[in-house]
């Protein structure tokens, strides 16, 4: 097990898993607040939760997961733009999954929408990690 943890991509994945977990909690709490408390449409709630979650993910990812990467040392705006662009594609996947779960499958109660959001986030997590690891911070 120790040998596996010494592989850089495995260490990064584990770190990203925790960073992603924190960002996911931010997303789920924001989604529940926007959808259940403020009664926003679930697609709008998904988009707004995405902005908060992606911001938390970028900040924490830079501090912990990709801290040694110097590719964007003097180009933070480019880095943020790339991270948000990749995450925006993930958001499209996320919204498509939410539409599938809520509208097509009829999982439209408050609890089922929140569970659908959790499932969609989990699926999109892998897209975000792979693109950041092998494209943005290669």
How would you sum up this structure, described in words?
The structure is a single chain. The chain has helices spanning 2-5, 8-37, 42-65, 76-104, 110-136. It contains five helices and no strands. The two termini are 25 Å apart. By secondary structure, it is mainly alpha-helical. Helices cover 83% and strands 0% of the residues.
Radius of gyration: 16 Å
User: Based on CA inertia axes, which overall geometry fits?
Assistant: elongated
Number of distinct helices: 5
Mean pLDDT: 86
Count of DSSP strands = 0
Quick one: biggest sheet? none
Strand content: under 5%
pLDDT < 50 runs, ≥5 residues: none
Name the helicity range.
Answer: over 70%
Which structural class do the helices and strands define? Answer: mainly alpha
Measured distance between first and last alpha carbons: 25 Å
SSE order:
HHHHH
Brief synopsis:
This protein is mainly α. It is 83% helix and 0% strand. The chain contains 5 helices and no strands.
What is the fold's blueprint, element by element?
Elements: H1 2-5, H2 8-37, H3 42-65, H4 76-104, H5 110-136
Keywords:
about 140 residues, mainly alpha
């Amino acid at each position: 097990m120790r040998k596996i943890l010494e592989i850089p991509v495995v260490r990064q994945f584990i770190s990203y898993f925790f960073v992603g977990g924190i960002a996911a909690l931010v997303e789920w709490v924001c989604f529940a607040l926007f959808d259940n408390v403020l009664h926003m449409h679930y697609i709008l709630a998904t988009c707004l939760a995405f902005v908060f979650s992606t911001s938390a993910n970028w900040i924490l990812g830079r501090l912990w997961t990709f801290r040694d990467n110097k590719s964007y040392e003097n180009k933070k705006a480019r880095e943020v733009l790339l991270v948000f662009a990749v995450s925006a594609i993930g958001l499209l996947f996320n919204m498509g999954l939410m539409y599938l779960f809520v509208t097509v499958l009829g999982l439209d109660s408050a609890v089922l929408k929140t569970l659908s959001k959790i499932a969609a986030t989990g699926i999109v997590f892998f897209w975000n990690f792979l693109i950041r690891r092998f494209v943005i911070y290669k």
